[in-house]
Amino acid sequence: MVKKITLFQLIALSIAFYGSIRNIPTVASVGWAGIFYMVCAAIFFAIPISLVAAELATGWPQEGGPQVWVKAALGPKWAFVTSWLLWVQMFFGMVMVSTAFAAMIPYIINRPDLANNNTFIVITVIITYWIITLLNFKAHFGKLISTWGAVIGIYIPAILLIVLGLWYSFKIGNVNLGPLNMDTLIPNLNSLDKFSFFAGICFIFAGLEIASVHANDIDNPKRNYPIAVFVTIFLMVIFNLIAALTEANAIPADKINLAVIIQPFQIYFNALGIPWMTNILALMIAFGVFAQLNAWVLGPSKAMIKVAEEGLLPPIFQKRNKDNIPVTFVIIQATVITLVTLLYVVVPEINTGFIMILMLTTILYCVVYVLILLAEIILKYKMPEVHRSTPVPGGKIGMWITVILAFIGVITTIIVSIIPNSDIPEDLHTASILIQVLGTIILVILPLIIFKYKKPTWKKGDVLNEQQ
């Protein structure tokens, strides 16, 4: 008999999966308004999508997650679009993570000025990602660093960020945050450029539907899974807010570098009289980010090669090496990531390029969430007989309330992602809008075109028969 996961274990597992300090500067950059954004992100994004994903995952537990749910509700065409978008959004997500890695190197070598040097960042990102790609052609490589990377580069820095942030804030008092009142807590909704930070904060919770795969493995899932969702998201909101508000107090808002996680640590360690610790922690964080990047290289590609073998992509996409690595997908990833990274060459500020990439990634993920929410509605009525061990609480009325909340959050996130925020110079507003709109349209239409013109001979079995 397989031992069930306890409620505490599921909460710990979820926090370990989502816990990251990579997005803290984004929350810090809006000061007290971060409270408003985080609460809205939880109510209109994280909680409802988690509950919907749990119901779908326990009703359709087959490997594949979102694409399986969408296929059951909307058919293979939109399942392919879902798989495709989950793959291509990783290109932009990995550029962001690679940028965070590249921004650590200057602090390791005592050259913090290089963290804002576009050329240095571009070269470092491209070299790093190609090294990780080549190393992953040997399947065993990833297992060697993932666990230690998480402990050394994510958990220890996260605890230090909160402890040191609180200590520094008590030491210096309220310097940069200013007073907490309705004007500082609630952003000016007439100024949509500020409200666009909501999209970046929602991105903290992107991917949370993956935790739903554990819903069937928990004791009393109908009761315990919703509790785990609420507790996990509550703890994540508290952690992010403490870390972000203490950083916002330590650094003026216009000086916060969204891609440089180490920035507040430098201030804290200097205040403690141990500036050399900045170098050590930068090395630790760089190792953690490297491990995270390494874990992401193969995941999306392994999912996509299964799609290719079903006959939805030409045979060249089905190529594997002797270690069973999906060669074509991995090479395409590295190539596209290289091209996307070159955006930093034409955009003068690292913050500006980082935000543009973040917004496009968020929009693509939100399109997937729209498909997941539609799948929830359709399957609730189309296949009511399918047992869901973790249904959305409240029956069909509860489902509609949950889905409407999620739709409000997802659609709002898409809209505000398109609007250039205050960190993007006016002369780049048009370029930013074009990147978001055209990028989304092209990347959604492309899989629809591929699906329309797919050939029966693309299916793996048919390819092998032809070769024989």
TrEMBL record:
Q: Which Pfam families match?
A: AA_permease_2
Give the transmembrane region(s): 32-57, 78-108, 120-137, 149-170, 195-213, 225-245, 276-298, 327-347, 353-379, 400-419, 431-451
This protein's UniProt keywords: Cell membrane, Membrane, Transmembrane, Transmembrane helix, Transport
Q: How does it sit in the membrane?
A: Multi-pass membrane protein
Q: Which domain of life is it from?
A: Bacteria
Q: Which GO terms describe its molecular function?
A: transmembrane transporter activity
Q: Where in the cell is it found?
A: Cell membrane
Q: What is this protein called?
A: L-asparagine transporter
Give the organism the record lists: Cetobacterium ceti
